[in-house]
Structures are given as structure tokens and as C-alpha cells.
From TrEMBL:
Belongs to the acyl-CoA dehydrogenase family. Keywords: FAD, Flavoprotein, Oxidoreductase. This is Acyl-CoA dehydrogenase family protein. Residues 185-326 form the Acyl-CoA dehydrogenase/oxidase C-terminal domain. Its cofactor is FAD.
Length: 332
């Protein structure tokens, strides 16, 4: 199992970074938040570049590279939900041009004549208000549902770029053949790893902005980056990000290689990313001073994307508990 990106992967990383810097600029994010600009053209860019075709487990590391970079730029599209929540549950039924998301809880299914009936309302569904298809997890299997059959309402979110929705599946009727067996546990491992990578990218963006600010901001006639207290905080942020990044890419490698440690690795990645965002959030705001709290400062978007990731798919405390359980059950 390799732990360094090879030459092709580094080239891929540079390519993705170049594209996102050009196509998903801070100005675009600001226009989406302030004036409701449409993110659909950016989604089409991803489709045209083939980024929406990274659905095979063997491409997990390449997908991880994309996810980190999209976290860095606060991606406003449904890419995260489509590629890492919907696709793992809809194996063989993924159209790279369509958006999708997953519903992991809140919906039940029962027999209805020759078919099935879904009932329930799912809260906080990532991109639930703009997904074209849903992969709905129930106690009897996974169902693929078209958006036209449900009622979705966008919910307020801490991250103003993020789309969360309440989706009502009450009375949705489906044919018998629309139920499928899927690796739900494996899909959750993928979703957690992906969320961790997104958080890592957002935290890296915060650190990048802090370092740039520390170089130009002066106090007592010297850049604040020359002060030891500032350096220590920046170093702590860097160490936390590198730890979370290493664990997240390890989790991606376990997914790519169908390694049995994927459950543990994804929990470790999500826990580390949660702890990382907590430290980065505090230190990032502090090192920017009062400027960090202003609406005009783009720091907020990266901070909010990282913090929102902690609230989805279980927080650091939950995943630390899962890790402890896993080790207690291990036969050493």
C-alpha cells in the first residue's frame, strides 16, 4: 500500500487545482451567496472534464484529490453528494450528467401490491433540493427515486453555499424492480472519507489565507508572521491538517484496494478532520483578528464549509467512540 502520490497523481492534483482556481474563484462563490448566481455552468465544466465519471472504487484516490481541491475552493455544486453518496449506492445506474444524493435515514418501505411504497421525511439531505435522483436507504434495501416523485424544501444552513433540504417521500410508489441490494456500510465509508477530505481542503484554504495575512499585516512595525505566538498557532494548524490529510488519504487507499480496514480508516479520517476543523476555526479567526468576523472577508466560506462537514455523517466524538469499539473487538 503506497502512501505517497505518484507522478501521475501529482499531475492530476496540479490539473485539478488549476481548473478550480480558474472556474471556481472566490468571486463566483461571493456572487452565489450575495446575488444567487447559478452554479449549474460549473457542474457542466466538471461533466465535460470527466470528473463525474470517477465512480469506480479503484479511482478512490483520484477522486480524493478532486474532493480536497473542491473543499479548498468551497465548491457550490452537487459534486460531493453525487459522487460520494449517491453513486456508491446506485452502482450500475449512474449517469455522469445527472446529479444525485443519498438518504440514509428517515424513510421506510413496505409492500404495496406488486410494488413498494415509501413513507417518511428525511431532514438535512445534502443537495436534496436540487438532486435529480435519490438513493434511499430503507430497512429492506435501497430504492432509486426520481426527483419528480418527492417534495423537497431547502433548509437554512450554517454554510450559505451548502444546499441542505428536507425531502418528503410520503406515499411514493415504486415498481418491484426498483429495489436493489447495495453495500450500505461501504457507501457510508466512502461518504465519511469524502466528507473528511472536503474538510481538509477547506482547512487548508484557511491556513493559506492566514499565512498570506500574516505576511502582509503589520503590528509594531513588523509583519505579525514574525511573532512567535502567531508562528506557533500556524504550526499547530499545519500539523492538524497534515494529520487529517494523511488519515483521509489512507482511508481512500483502503477503499481503492477493497481493504477490510476501510470502516476503521474512514472513522479515523472523519474524527481527525473534525478535530482539525475545530482547531483551525479557532486559530484562523483569531489570527485574522476582527477582520475574520466580517462578511466581506472570504475566510468565512472556508471556515463554514469545514464546520458544516463536522455536523454531517457524525462528528468527531461519535467516530472516536466507533474507533474505540473497533479496537476493543479486535483480536490482537
Amino acid at each position: 500500500m503506497l502512501f505517497e502520490l505518484d507522478a501521475d497523481q501529482r499531475l492530476w492534483q496540479d490539473t485539478v487545482r488549476t481548473v478550480t482556481a480558474k472556474e471556481c474563484s472566490p468571486a463566483l462563490i461571493r456572487s452565489i451567496v450575495d446575488s444567487g448566481a447559478d452554479s449549474a455552468p460549473l457542474w457542466q465544466v466538471y461533466v465535460d472534464l470527466g470528473w463525474t465519471e470517477l465512480v469506480a472504487p479503484e479511482s478512490a484516490v483520484e477522486l480524493a484529490i478532486v474532493l480536497e481541491e473542491l473543499g479548498r475552493v468551497t465548491d457550490p455544486t452537487p459534486y460531493l453528494a453525487t459522487l460520494t453518496q449517491f453513486a456508491p449506492l446506485a452502482t450500475g445506474s449512474v449517469d455522469p450528467r445527472q446529479t444525485g444524493t443519498a438518504v440514509f435515514e428517515g424513510v421506510t418501505a413496505r409492500r404495496d401490491g406488486a410494488g413498494w411504497r415509501l413513507d417518511g421525511t428525511a431532514a438535512h439531505v445534502l443537495d436534496g433540493d436540487r438532486a435529480e435522483r435519490y438513493a434511499v436507504v430503507t430497512g429492506v434495501g435501497v430504492f432509486l427515486v426520481d426527483a419528480a416523485k418527492v417534495r423537497a424544501t431547502r433548509s437554512p444552513a450554517f454554510d450559505p453555499v451548502l444546499h441542505l433540504a428536507e425531502v418528503d417521500f410520503s406515499g411514493v410508489r415504486l415498481d418491484a424492480g426498483e429495489r436493489r441490494d447495495a453495500d450500505i456500510a461501504g457507501a457510508l465509508h466512502t461518504a465519511r472519507t469524502a466528507m473528511a477530505l472536503t474538510m481538509v481542503g477547506a482547512c487548508q484554504r484557511v491556513l493559506d489565507m492566514v499565512l498570506e495575512h500574516a505576511r502582509v499585516r503589520k503590528q509594531f512595525g513588523a509583519p505579525i508572521g514574525s511573532f512567535q505566538a502567531v508562528q506557533h498557532k500556524a504550526a499547530d494548524m499545519h500539523v492538524a491538517i497534515e494529520r487529517a490529510r494523511a488519515l483521509s488519504y489512507f482511508a481512500a487507499v483502503t477503499l481503492a484496494e477493497h481493504d477490510s480496514r476501510a470502516r476503521l480508516a474512514s472513522a479515523m479520517a472523519k474524527a481527525a478532520a473534525g478535530e482539525c476543523q475545530s482547531l483551525v476555526f479557532r486559530s484562523g479567526l483569531q489570527l485574522f483578528g476582527g477582520m475574520g468576523f466580517t462578511w466581506e472577508n472570504d475566510l468565512q466560506f472556508a471556515l463554514k464549509r469545514a464546520a458544516a462537514g463536522e455536523l454531517m455523517l457524525g462528528g468527531a466524538d461519535e467516530h472516536r467512540a466507533l474507533i474505540a469499539e473497533e479496537y476493543r473487538a479486535a483480536d490482537f
